[in-house]
Task: inverse folding
């Protein structure tokens, strides 16, 4: 309760309420330009040399002939023979092989992946909320995630994903006041339903259309979504991540690159199975506010938080006790990844600051320092929802006045 009150005091005047969209996006654009410049400065010839086997000069140059006896050295260049997509995919696989080529680097990557898992969880959760269905990018996160993982990196977050959330939040402020509460629709009594039906009859077509907009803006989602999202993230993301980190071969890296598609497919499949398993009458018209349900919170955040805590403290132990075994090439490749994800972390902190105030952003950083960045983000997102709901209620009262 004390934490919620502390955060709520800092969210009374949000940046997203006070500033125009171009003003809100400008820091992200500058951060994106700065990220590109830092990544350019961090480029290293040893990393560039890793890509050379993906672009053989001729068939007799000896690259990828298996003379060194390494399966990775023979399999990875084979990807370059695939028309069009082969060389870029080969470069990605070779880059991650170089970045994971030590015990320390694998542990560092586990820490980074915990944060990615938390981001995947919260963006998938937001895509399922009724109030976000009018935004194409928020409603369909998979294309943006694939672009991020295969090509764009931090720039996708800075110039596409986060601006879409800020833009959508500003649009929501200009709509009529809606009923955004944390009570499930299933708890509405028969008398309340009858009263609602009478109100709709009195409202007429125009009023009913506005009422539908109000219902659409709720922060609820389908009750089957929390388990579906959880299973999708675990099977579609964390399982490939385990193979990616513990057995960093060409095949495991290649499989991991497309985790956004796996997570989405598993989520859709589980959601359909749960809908088939539930009686039609029980599922019809039902909705759930996930942050108001302990079971839903556990479904959504338990695995990402556990992964984050374990990865974080394993990294701290490794840094304190175990000697660094990274080569120069591994350091350079991993440094590139660390710089990119540092930029993503700063962008997400700014996102939370713009929507909920500086106190929640500070809490996310403090919790991340103790529990890992993934757990810090999950904890902040649960608290963020309370701020978003209370802010909508306050704005609704102002509009009525």
Result:
């Amino acid at each position: 309760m004390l934490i919620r009150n502390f955060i709520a005091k800092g969210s009374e005047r949000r940046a997203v309420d006070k500033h125009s969209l171009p003003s809100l996006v400008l820091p992200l654009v500058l951060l994106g330009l700065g990220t590109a410049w830092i990544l350019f400065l961090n480029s290293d010839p040893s990393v560039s040399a890793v890509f050379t086997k993906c672009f053989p000069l001729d068939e007799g140059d000896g690259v990828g002939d298996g003379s060194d006896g390494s399966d990775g050295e023979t399999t990875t260049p084979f990807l370059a023979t695939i028309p069009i997509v082969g060389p870029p995919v080969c470069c990605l696989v070779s880059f991650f092989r170089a970045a994971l080529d030590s015990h320390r680097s694998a542990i560092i990557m586990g820490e980074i992946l915990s944060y990615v898992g938390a981001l995947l969880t919260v963006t998938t959760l937001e895509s399922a909320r009724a109030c976000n269905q009018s935004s194409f990018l928020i409603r369909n996160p998979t294309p943006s995630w694939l672009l991020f993982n295969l090509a764009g990196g931090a720039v996708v977050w800075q110039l596409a994903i986060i601006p879409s959330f800020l833009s959508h939040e500003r649009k929501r402020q200009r709509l009529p006041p809606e009923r955004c509460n944390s009570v499930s629709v299933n708890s509405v009594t028969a008398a309340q339903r009858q009263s609602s039906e009478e109100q709709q009859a009195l409202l007429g077509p125009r009023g009913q259309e506005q009422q539908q907009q109000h219902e659409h803006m709720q922060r609820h989602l389908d009750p089957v979504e929390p388990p579906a999202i959880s299973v999708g993230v675990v099977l579609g993301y964390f399982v490939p991540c385990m193979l990616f980190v513990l057995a960093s071969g060409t095949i495991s890296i290649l499989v991991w690159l497309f985790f956004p598609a796996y997570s989405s497919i598993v989520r859709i499949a589980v959601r359909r199975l749960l809908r088939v398993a539930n009686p039609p009458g029980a599922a019809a018209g039902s909705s759930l506010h996930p942050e108001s349900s302990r079971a839903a919170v556990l479904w959504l955040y338990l695995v990402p938080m556990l992964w984050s805590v374990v990865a974080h403290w394993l990294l701290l132990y490794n840094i304190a006790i175990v000697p660094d075994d990274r080569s120069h090439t591994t350091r350079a490749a991993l440094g590139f990844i660390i710089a990119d994800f540092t930029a993503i972390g700063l962008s997400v902190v700014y996102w939370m600051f713009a929507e909920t105030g500086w106190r929640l952003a500070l809490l996310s950083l403090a919790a991340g320092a103790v529990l890992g960045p993934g757990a810090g983000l999950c904890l902040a997102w649960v608290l963020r929802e309370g701020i978003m709901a209370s802010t909508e209620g306050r704005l609704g009262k102002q509009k009525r006045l």
Q: What stands out?
A: The first helix runs from residue 2 to 9. Residues 60-72, 177-200, 208-217 have pLDDT under 50 and may be disordered.
